[in-house]
Amino acid sequence: MAKRNSSNRSWIPVVSCGPADRTSGLYWDAATGFLGCWSRYDDDPGDVLDTLVTYLEEAADMLETPALATRDQPGLIGGTPIWLGSVDPAREDQWQPLTG
What we know:
Layout (H helix, E strand, L loop, with lengths): L10 E6 L7 E6 L5 E5 L12 H13 L9 E4 L2 E4 L12 E2 L3
Antiparallel strand pairs: 1-2, 2-3, 4-5, 4-6
């Protein structure tokens, strides 16, 4: 397995863990078609074995019907969509769950 912070020309970053986060997230591997996790700190959060299409379809389903959310809960802070798992603990009281 390649190191997560290694430079790999077939990896395209597609998701970060926060709006200004450049330390970790998900990448799409153009060679395999699957998503994987990356981290500047060489964390090992585990592999994500979804395709980008599957990941985006599941995210859309969870936004349309929040009760389907199995990985993380969608919500809003000040009108901005944000997943509960990426909310800074100091702002959790501002997070409101989506209702579908």
